[in-house]
Amino acid sequence: MISKTEPMQLEGAELKVGVTVSVVPGSVKGPDGMLEPAPCTIKVDGKQVADNQNGKSAEPCEYKLKD
Q: Is the pLDDT of residue 67 over 90?
């Protein structure tokens, strides 16, 4: 599993309207040998706020971050 941490500081209008954070998962080989979406999650302050149901959804993980 790969993990990446990015600190974010909201400024100006972002404090009111927020910023959408998106993670677009790549593909991984499934048990049947076919490519499927990799799992993705977004955590804010250690709390999970979005996921793609462990790769069951091909949609990206998205979360609107507001202060």
A: no
Burial 7-39 (b: 16+ CB within 10 A, else e): eeeeeeeeeeeeeebebebeeeeeeeeeeebbb
Rounded to a whole number, what is the distance in angstroms from the first to the last CA of the chain? 29
How would DSSP label each residue in the chain? -----------TTHHHH-EEEEE---EEE-TTS-EEEPP-EEEETTEEEEE-TTTT--SPEEEEE--
- Its pTM stands at 0.80
